[in-house]
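Intended use. Records like the one below are meant for learning the mapping from a protein sequence to its folded structure. Do not use them to infer anything beyond what is encoded.
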Amino acid sequence: MSDLQGRDGHSRDGEDSPASIERVSIDAPQFQVAAAHPRRTERAVALTMLVGLCGFAGFGAAYFQAASNFWLGISLGIGFLGLGVGVVAWGKYLMPRGPFSESRHELSSTEEEREKFVEDLASRGTVAVERRGFLVKILAAASAVLGIVSLFPLLRSLGPLPKNLFYVTKWKKGSYLTTAEGQRVHKDDVLTGGVLTVFPENDVGGALSQTMLVRVGEPGQNMVTMPSRKNWGPEGYLAFSKVCTHAGCPVALYQQLTHQLLCPCHQSLFDIGNGQPGVPVFGPAPRPLPQLPLYVDSQGYLRSRAGFNEPIGPGFWERGGTE
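Structure written out for the chain above:
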């Protein structure tokens, strides 16, 4: 508030005279800053804000590169520490100290008094900021960087759009069933009741191509899961995507007595026997496991007739499937 002091108190008619309003210079003691060396202090404040800006930028880079929590915490801590110290030091050492008081005899003011008061308040209210224009810019830059990097967790955590990623895997017509060691699977390699994780030769170890090969029947037996898939299970073999249709966890266990595949993450249970082609019978999985059609070539190796009959993995927007 402005410091209004009358030169000679009240006028003869009991009212303050317009001439009694005295404007205090901005160089008055109450408008001086606490810092003994303002320029040096201003540079120090600017430096701490720049450190904060760099900290926020480092957090954004670390998050984008999927760095460890250690570097995420260090960079974000440096950012907030630098910005906080700078703002506190600015307010404590570079703003007017006061005290500010107003001597007032009458609650009413003349038009001239009001005009001078507004002019006086406007000039004093901006001087502390106008003198520190560089600090304002640094503060604005640090705040802008913080605002931008705060969006990173939201945008990056959503992950890339799936597009056609789950519609087509590396399985195609004629692909050899291959172990994780790169060995082709022969029809005699797995005993009845046995399981094996297999991949196409061009994507060994691929997360989307991983497939559960199960020998449900006896050698020479053709396994039929449904009428439209009469030749999909030669020599007692059935193959289903290992990517659970609930949350994408690997379906890793097989119960031979019940002919069921189990996802250990959330206990989804899929029936692959009794005419049930990977249908979920327990747990949160909403849809069957896609089946891979198989055949045995002239040398006895297991190969795929085509890719999976439908998109693999959890459901997503506008997902479709074909039989």
